[in-house]
Structure formats: structure tokens, C-alpha cells
Specification:
By secondary structure, the chain is mostly beta strands. A hairpin with a 2-residue loop joins strand 2 (about 45-50) and strand 3.
Length: about 675
């Protein structure tokens, strides 16, 4: 039994015993006698204990709400009035986690079934996580169904939403995995974000003419959903062959996952492919996008695991966050010169993608755009691109990348964990920002055009020109201030650039040269048909310390692997058991793990006993978790993307918000 329910129950007993005119209610009453109740007087209101099968429910006579219930109740037949006070609402937490509750009958005096915003707390609504609830009647007096009202009611098989209801809140029926039938009556005007997400047994849904608003991902992850039908009189939405569009079919909103389509042609009327429009369409192998389309929405094709190739027309200007993420079979994609913006994670984890050309109209390559594209071998960045963020993290097969002179900013981690530095060559313009950045950070560079073949065909073929370590000065922020002179080999001889042992800039990168302490010139024979001794000239100079004020080169970051839905995490090849499984947060499309395990790693506690860690403190009232290590204190709040470290507030990346799930906080 939850703490809040234990508290209210104990309070009821204490007040009942102390009042001479009160008595404990009977658990059952004869048909000929009234059910006895107990008034519990608090400083704010009068709470009445009302017995039902398996325990009690608690009624606030001042507000007219059922505010709580014992966790062991089995059935709840709620009357229209209790002690002369009309029952008008089911409160936010009323039946939360009543795991034995199978049936609820609501009176026609109820007008509202309340819920709690997912931004405030996860999994808390009037009937959330009532895992045995199979049926409930919603009377035609109800006008709204609140956020998370029936969240995670896994046994609920059908629901009838009367025409009196105008709004269905965010996450209202989310993860109702046994729900096979939903009747939404004419009168409902809004369906909230993620309202029916992950209803994995739902095969079809009808949208009445009254609906004016359908929230983001309202029907995502409904794995057996084959048809979304819209009433032809609806003024805002329409459907074609079971696919959901806006009224004039300029926006494709949702292709049901269960349609099991392999090929799809988007109508020529469409100008925008909506957020998550095709996400998790795992059978989709090809898509025909007309030249009327100008934008591809967030996660539009994410997790389309069979999609092998896609041609984006010249009309497209924007590719949003995670648009093609986890398209693991995608080997080729054409990004046209019309594209002006590619958002974060757009092609992340496309593990079969081998090459990519980024057009010059894209000013910035954002964080994670090609993260963990593990088969990517070559990248061609066109002139016009000005900045590269942490875009190619984990692209372990990279051998060549072309960076134009227009680039003036490269994040230190842009190519972190990308490959062996002996294998990847940066093709850059001599004296450019990219030239200095690559040399400073220990990468090989070439000033020739990249090779068009994978290997030389004759003995006289030459390798790409490469640089050696250069510079007698530390790097400055602006490439124009450097005095670096790159020294290159004249034929096939290659030398490897080494990372400076001291001085130089740290993680933010940048600059136009190197902090190395030596300058070396290597010459080879002028022909490749005869062997000649190379001539080497070397001078030694003391490197000036960096004055940029940036942080030092980072320590080695451990390799961490975690599988969605699994409670095992691998750190540097060693498996550890977490106290709960990892999962993907829908809003940020990021992987979340239990905060308790993170606290163990930070604190240095016994990683083998994560569930017993004392490094984390939980404040139930504030719904906050505090992690401490030495003089560091970090505070995470449920529903917030802000972490407060020693009083300084910082936003977590990618919009990640701390969440409470199954009694644990995840980050």
C-alpha cells in the first residue's frame, strides 16, 4: 500500500476512535439498511470514509471528489451522493495503483475524471496503473478525461467515451495494452498528446466530425493498428486508405504501424511529413516523396528498420530531429541542395549508411546528426557549411572526410570515438580553420582531392598527400592569427600527426595550427619507380602555453552499451546489472536509465550492488532526488530537464527530463 494511502487510512481510524459519535463503517451492508460512513475532520475539509468491496474509498465532501482508495479494493460501486453530498469528480490520485481493482461503476453525477500533467509526475492519474481493471463505465455526465487518467491500465479491453466528453487528456489511455475497442462519440473536440500511444492491441479507430485537435504521437507504437478513419464531416482532419491527414491533405500525420506496408507513395498534395508519421513502420522498404514536400518532421521515419534507400526531392528545406534515426538498413540517401537545416540526431544510428554528402546550404551540422553511423566511411561537406558540432560521434569506420574552407567552428568531440587516427584523413584547404583544428587534435590531413578509388591500381600510384606535426606556436581562437606552416610529403610517403603532449586547446577545439614542439619536413624521391633515401630536416622549438582558457584534453570516456528493455549495462566490456531496465523517453527520444545506478557510478559505491546505494536521497514531497559525491551535490526533479549542481542550474541535453517510472527516477 502506498504511503499516501496508508497515511489517509490511519488518519481515518484515529479520528474515528476519538469521536464519540462516529463508528467504523461496515464492509458490507444489507439491502434494507444504509451504508454507514465515518466523517474525518481535517483542517481543510471533511473527508468521509466509504466502504466498498475489499476496503474503503475516501470522499472529500467539500470538493465533491473521491480523493483516495485503499490499495486492496476489488470493486468500486460509487453512489451519486455520500452523506448528502453529491459526488462530482474522481480526483487525480484517487485509484492510482489499485492493482486488485477489476470493476468501477461511476454515477451520472460525475463530470470530471482528473489526471496529473506528465510534466509534473509520470504515471499518476485517477485510475493509472490499475493493472486488473477490465471495465469501467463513463457516464454521459462526464465532460473531460484528465491527463494519464487510465495510464497503464493493461487489462482494460474496451472503452466508450460519450459525446458529453469534450477533451481526452495527454497520455489518458497510454499503454493500455489490451485495449481492442475504443468508441469516441461525436462531441469530443480534442485528443491529447500520446493519448493512445502503445495501445498494442488496438486495430482501428474512428475520429468523429467534432474533433478539432489531435496531439503529437496520439497513436504511436500501436503495433496492430491498421486503420484510422475520419468522419467525412470533420473540418480539420481526413483519412485516405486508413492513413491520417489534415483536412486538405497537405500534412501526412500518421501511417498506422499495423498496415505492414512495404512501399508507399505520398500524395502530391502533401507539403509536410508530420512528426512520427512513419515511425516504427518496420516493413517499409521504399518511399516515394513528391517534390511538393518542403519539410520532414521529427522522427518521421525513425525505426523504419527495413528502409534501404530514400530520395529526398529538391523541394525539401528542413529535415527535423531524428527524422531517419535508427533506420538500420538505410545504405544510401540523397540530401538535395535545397536543404537549409538538418536538425539533431537526424540520421543517428543508421548503421548501414556508407557515405553522405552535406550540401552547402546547411549552415551547421548539429549534435548527433550522424551519431553511431558505424558503416559510414566517407563524408563530403560542401562549401557553405560553417560549423560542425558533435555530429559524427562513434562513426567508427570513417576513412575520409572533406571539410571546406567555409567551416569556422568544429567541436572537439565532433569525431570523438570515430576511428583509428591512422585510418581517417581530413581533406582540407591549406591554412584553413579545419586544417589547423585537425593538426592540433592529432588527425592526418591532406590538401589533395580525396581518392576516387579504394586502392591504387599500379605500382606507380601515389597516396594522398599528408602532413606531419607542425607549428611552433599555440593555437588561438581565430584561424587568421596562426603562423602555422604545414609541411607535406611530396610523394607517397606518409607521416602520422601526433597529439601535442602539452599546451594547446582542450575540448572546444578550434584554431588554425598545432601546439606541437617540433617542426619536421619530410621529402621522398621524386619518382616512384626507384627507391631513394628520404631526407629529413628537423628543428626544435619550445611551444608556448595556450592562452585560450579552455579546458584540458578530456580523460578517456568509457564505452557504455545499454539495450532498451534490459536491465544490464556494459561499461568498457563488463556487464553490470541495473536496478531496472532502460527505456526510450518519447518526448526527447533519448535512452533513460535508473538514476540510482548513475549515483552509484558517480559516487564510487559498489557498482555490483546498485540497489543498495546510499549515494542518492529521495524527497517524496518535492519529487526530487539528490546525488552526492564528495563536495558535489546534484539535484534532479521529476518532470524537469534542469539539473542543479551545487546551486547552479543546467539543462540536460536533447530536452531529456527526469522521469518517475515504476517507483524509480530515470535520467
Amino acid at each position: 500500500m502506498k504511503f499516501k494511502k496508508v497515511t489517509s487510512f490511519i488518519l481515518s481510524l484515529i479520528m474515528a476512535v476519538s469521536s464519540l459519535n462516529m463508528c467504523l463503517a461496515k464492509t458490507q451492508a444489507d439491502d434494507s439498511s444504509e451504508i454507514e460512513t465515518v466523517d474525518v475532520i481535517t483542517s481543510e475539509s471533511a473527508v468521509v470514509v466509504y466502504p466498498v468491496t475489499g476496503g474503503n474509498i475516501y470522499f472529500n465532501s467539500s470538493s465533491g471528489e473521491i480523493v483516495n482508495a485503499d490499495g486492496g479494493i476489488i470493486e468500486a460501486n460509487i453512489p451519486s451522493s455520500i452523506n448528502g453530498h453529491t459526488v462530482t469528480a474522481i480526483g487525480c490520485y484517487a485509484f492510482e495503483d489499485c492493482a486488485k481493482l477489476t470493476t468501477v461503476k461511476l454515477p451520472n453525477t460525475i463530470t470530471e475524471i482528473k489526471g496529473v500533467s506528465m510534466h509534473s509526475a509520470m504515471g499518476i492519474g485517477a485510475f493509472s496503473s490499475c493493472s486488473a481493471l477490465t471495465s469501467i463505465n463513463i457516464p454521459d455526465s462526464v465532460t473531460s478525461i484528465g491527463e494519464q487518467a487510465f495510464f497503464n491500465c493493461g487489462a482494460l479491453t474496451s472503452i466508450n467515451i460519450p459525446g458529453s466528453v469534450t477533451s481526452i487528456g495527454d497520455y489518458a489511455f497510454n499503454n493500455c495494452s489490451s485495449l481492442t475497442s475504443i468508441n469516441i462519440s461525436d462531441g469530443v473536440t480534442s485528443i491529447g498528446d500520446y493519448a493512445f500511444e502503445d495501445c498494442s492491441s488496438l486495430t482501428s479507430i474512428n475520429i468523429p466530425g467534432s474533433v478539432t485537435s489531435i496531439g503529437d504521437s496520439a497513436f504511436s507504437y500501436c503495433s496492430t493498428l491498421t486503420t484510422i478513419n475520419v468522419d467525412e464531416n470533420n473540418k480539420n482532419y481526413s483519412s485516405l486508405d486508413g492513413v491520417l491527414y489534415n483536412k486538405d491533405k497537405t500534412t501526412l500525420i500518421r501511417v498506422p504501424i499495423g498496415k505492414d506496408i512495404k512501399e508507399f507513395t505520398i500524395p502530391s498534395s502533401v507539403t509536410s511529413i508530420g512528426d512520427s508519421a512513419f515511425s516504427y513502420c518496420s516493413a517499409l522498404t521504399s518511399i516515394n516523396i513528391p517534390n511538393s514536400v518542403t519539410s520532414i518532421g521529427d522522427s518521421a521515419f525513425s525505426y523504419c528498420s527495413s528502409l534501404t534507400s530514400i530520395s529526398i526531392p529538391n523541394s525539401v528545406r528542413t529535415i527535423e530531429n531524428s527524422a531517419f534515426s535508427y533506420c538500420r538498413a538505410l545504405t544510401n540517401i540523397n540530401i538535395p541542395i535545397s536543404v537549409r537545416r538538418i536538425e539533431k540526431e537526424a540520421f543517428s544510428n543508421c548503421s548501414s549508411l556508407t557515405s553522405i554528402t552535406i550540401p552547402g546550404g546547411v549552415a551547421s551540422i548539429e549534435t548527433g546528426t550522424f551519431r553511431y553511423c558505424s558503416a559510414l566511411t566517407s563524408i563530403n561537406i560542401s562549401d557553405g557549411v560553417t560549423s560542425i558540432d558533435r555530429a559524427f560521434y562513434g562513426c567508427s569506420a570513417l576513412t575520409s572526410i572533406v571539410i571546406p574552407g567555409s567551416v569556422t567552428s568544429i567541436d572537439y568531440y565532433a569525431f570523438y570515438d570515430s576511428c583509428d587516427k591512422e585510418k581517417l584523413t581530413f581533406y582540407v584547404k591549406l591554412g584553413s580553420y579545419a586544417d589547423g583544428w585537425a593538426i592540433k587534435n592529432g588527425w592526418k590531413v591532406s590538401y589533395d582531392a580525396p581518392p576516387t578509388t579504394t586502392a591504387p591500381t599500379t605500382e606507380t600510384s601515389t597516396q594522398p598527400t599528408t602532413t606531419t606535426v607542425t607549428s611552433t606556436q599555440s593555437i588561438t581562437e581565430k584561424p587568421t592569427e596562426t603562423t602555422t606552416k604545414a609541411v607535406v610529403t611530396e610523394t607517397g610517403t606518409e607521416t602520422t600527426t601526433k597529439k601535442p603532449a602539452s599546451g594547446g586547446r582542450g575540448p572546444s577545439g578550434g584554431g588554425g595550427g598545432s601546439s606541437a614542439a617540433a617542426k619536421t619536413t619530410t621529402k621522398a624521391a621524386e619518382t616512384t619507380t626507384a627507391k631513394a633515401e628520404p631526407k629529413t630536416e628537423a628543428t626544435t622549438a619550445k611551444a608556448e602555453p595556450s592562452t585560450t582558457g579552455k579546458e584540458a584534453t578530456p580523460n578517456t570516456i568509457p564505452e557504455v552499451k545499454v539495450a532498451i528493455g534490459k536491465d544490464v549495462i556494459s561499461i568498457d566490456g563488463k556487464d553490470y546489472k541495473m536496478d531496472a531496465s532502460a527505456y526510450i523517453q518519447s518526448e526527447s527520444n533519448s535512452t533513460l536509465v535508473p538514476l540510482r545506478f548513475v549515483a552509484v557510478v558517480l559516487s564510487g559505491d559498489d557498482i555490483e550492488n546498485a540497489d543498495n546505494s546510499k549515494a542518492i536521497a529521495w524527497d517524496a514531497a518535492a519529487k526530487q532526488a539528490t546525488v552526492t559525491k564528495d563536495n558535489m551535490k546534484a539535484v534532479f526533479a521529476a518532470g524537469s530537464n534542469i539539473v542543479e549542481v551545487n546551486g547552479v542550474k543546467t539543462a540536460m541535453e536533447n530536452g531529456v527530463k527526469a522521469e518517475i517510472k515504476d517507483g524509480r527516477m530515470y535520467v
